[in-house]
Input
Amino acid sequence: MRGRYESWFLSARDAEPGRPPRALWIRHTRHRFAGSEIESAARWCTIFDPAGGGGPAAVKESGVHLDDGAACGATRFHGGARAHGRMAEWELTVAGGGVGELRHLHPGLLYRLPLPRTKLVAPVPDGVVSGRVVVDGVVVDVVGWRATVGHNWGREHAERWVWLHASGFPDAPEAWLELALARVRVGGALTPWIASGAVFVGGRRFRLGGLGHIPGVRVVAAPGRLEAIVPGKGIEIRVAAHADLDQTVGFTYAGTREGDARTVLHSGLASVRLGVRRPGRSSAELATTSGGAFELGGRGLETNGVPLQPYPDP
Output
């Protein structure tokens, strides 16, 4: 029996001018090792609140008996987690804003083929979330936070990946960026960086990356730092992201085979500079100080001092 994992996640930020920035990252996963019939579930909750002092507050619970009414999807996240003396509960609703689902892989046939081994979709690439999160008894009221919902599944994590989402650009409030970058192993060889995603700017959505644009992708990625050039259909973006390591959380992602784990660093409040170039049009330069979510993952990834959370996976 082949191994498999699946995750739904919600990432949201309260980055309105004049208010201390806060962010949340909630993840529901299901996992089965190769050769096993046992499927485990896990629920994760991380709150980023620099004004509250200290680093991110993270709770994760894993087990085979987590089917207790929790919900995750394009419109609602409901659940809780208890582990290591910590607890979290959440009840959140998501409004998609009529943006429409973003299917990263193009052409769509890739969702039915063995490769890539990870499939990804953004059911809500740009939305708004409201509700309540409670972490260790502290209530966080979530009112109109800018959000994205992601859905990933597959048989193997990429060898190295970057996920970046950004919105809340003061000079273009409607603009958003959803970007995935990955290197994968195929037949023992490591591919170049492959990009997928979209940018919404000037009232239009532009697809980024894809197999036909691999030669033009340039990536420098390290804990807390990303610089990338990504071409797309009728567009090219240059993006730089920075995340404070003291506001970055570290987790271990189990692979679908024993011993095939990945290390993941995730920040919910990254600064992002975005340059947009279109043939025959003037360039656009956008920036947000805390409207980005930046994730870096990979096998044997150095954490640069970010402690890994003491929660097993799955």
